[in-house]
Structure formats: C-alpha cells, structure tokens
Amino acid sequence: MTTISANLQAVLARIDAAARQYGRDPREVALLAVSKKWPAAYVRDAAAAGQRAFGENYVQEGVDKIVELHELRQLGLVWHFIGPLQSNKTRVVAENFDWVHSVDRLKIAERLAEQRPDALPPLSVCLQVNVSGEQTKSGVSLAEAPALAREIARLPRLQLRGLMAIPAPTDDFGAQRLPFSRLRALYEQLRADGLALDTLSMGMSHDLEAAIAEGATLVRVGTAIFGERN
Ligand SMILES: *Cc1c(COP(=O)(O)O)cnc(C)c1O
C-alpha cells in the first residue's frame, strides 16, 4: 500500500468515527482530496486507491493536472476549484472544473455562468462565506450572503449547491465548532427560504471532526492525505 493510500484510509476512518460520534451517517460526508502543490502522479495514486473528488487552489496548476489526467475522467474524477478566483481567470475555470467553492461576488458568478460551455452540465457552485469576520479573508459576510445566494441561484448554467468557509485556524475544539455552527445556521436558513442546497463544504485536516459535528457534508483535506506542503 502506498503512503497516500494508507493516509486516505486513515482520513476516511476519521470521517467515519466523527460521523458516528455525532450521530451522523458517514455516507453523508464526502471527502475532497486537496491536491494543490502536489504533482499529477499523487492524484493518480489517490485515484488508484479509490478517491474520486479532487480540489485545486491555483487555476493554471489545476488545469494542467486536469489535462494531464484526462484519461482518468472515465473513472469519474470530479474536479473542484477551491482557491481565490479573479475575474480574468473565470473562463478557464468554467471550461475545465466541475465545481467552484470560492464564489463570493456576483460578478464572478455572472462570468462563470456566461462562460460555462452549453455542452457541459451546470457548474456546481458554493458561496464562500467569511464566518470569522476577519478583514483580510475572502468570502461574503454572513449578513450579505442571503441576497447574494438568491441572485446566484437565478443564473443559468450554474447550480448553487451550498456554502463554504475557511475559519481562522485554532486547536481548541469548541472554538473550531463556533464558526462552523454559524455557517450551518445560514445553510439551514437558506434552505428554509427555498434554496435547494445540499452541500456544506467545511473542515480541513486539522478541524474536520469539528466540521462534521456541525453538519459538514464535504470536508476538504490536503495535508493529512498528501503530506505537509512547502
Ligand atoms: C489547502 C486548502 C485545504 C486543505 O487544507 P489542509 O490543511 O492541507 O487539509 C482545504 N480548503 C482550502 C480552501 C484550501 O486552500
């Protein structure tokens, strides 16, 4: 067994244990393997071990891997763009990725909608929300998120799937849960308002248990699968 395959099994076991501990069905929590800064060969290893969903942060690096691993598409690989997205890069993302988690402005969503090829299924998108209230972090504020979500949900060729957040890192479990609980409350509110959302994208290598405790349906894990990045 390769290290990547062993690490993947360990992460799946963490997801399983956390789901059970918090009364959730482990099948409700998907694993996104974040392969940023690692070569295509690592993705190939993870795919051979059964992993199908991969996340990338940098547009060119991600597209290079998607092209290099094109033949693996038949296995059902799904590519998620999770990094900051500038308007001059939206076209290549709309043409190559299946998901975008980092939409936080209407302008970016409108460009993705315009540039998504008709021949492809709708681009799945998550609204990135700034749950820690830090000035420097990207993401729409909790207060502005509902209006933006409603506008994005109306755009063609996009399917608004849910919400994503990257809270400020902390080792305290209770402190990890707090911003996740805020994102979950927003998610429940938007669903109660009639938006058909199914994805709560939250939790990374160091805080996936707290995210699962608060209802994550997808955790984005890099380091615990592929190792420490430089
Ligand atoms: C890098 C990254 C991850 C993975 O983080 P790890 O700590 O390596 O698990 C998840 N989400 C986003 C948005 C990232 O940029």
Total helix count? 9
Main sheet specs: 9 strands, parallel
Tell me the series of helices and strands, N- to C-terminal.
HEHEHEHEHEEHEHEHEH
What is the CATH superfamily label?
Answer: Alanine racemase
Binned, the helix content reads 40-55%
Q: What is the global morphology?
A: globular
Count of the separate structural domains: 1
Core attributes:
230 residues; alpha/beta; TIM Barrel; nine-stranded parallel beta sheet; binds pyridoxal-5'-phosphate
Structure description:
The protein is an alpha/beta fold. It has one domain (3-226): Alanine racemase (TIM Barrel). It is built from nine helices and nine strands. Helix 2 (40-48) links the parallel strand 1 and strand 2 (53-56). The structure holds pyridoxal-5'-phosphate. Pyridoxal-5'-phosphate binds next to strand 9 and helix 9.
Topology record:
Elements: H1 3-21, E1 30-34, H2 40-48, E2 53-56, H3 59-68, E3 78-81, H4 90-96, E4 99-103, H5 106-115, E5 123-130, E6 140-141, H6 145-153, E7 158-164, H7 173-192, E8 199-201, H8 208-213, E9 218-221, H9 223-226
Parallel strand pairs: 1-2, 1-9, 2-3, 3-4, 4-5, 5-6, 5-7, 7-8
Helix pairs in contact: 4-5
The structure holds pyridoxal-5'-phosphate.
Pyridoxal-5'-phosphate (PLP) binds at residues 34, 36, 57, 82, 166, 204-206, 220-224.
Summed up:
With 230 residues, this protein is of the alpha/beta class. It has helices spanning 3-21, 40-48, 59-68, 90-96, 106-115, 145-153, 173-192, 208-213, 223-226; strands at 30-34, 53-56, 78-81, 99-103, 123-130, 140-141, 158-164, 199-201, 218-221. The longest helix is centred in the last third of the chain and has 20 residues, at 173-192.
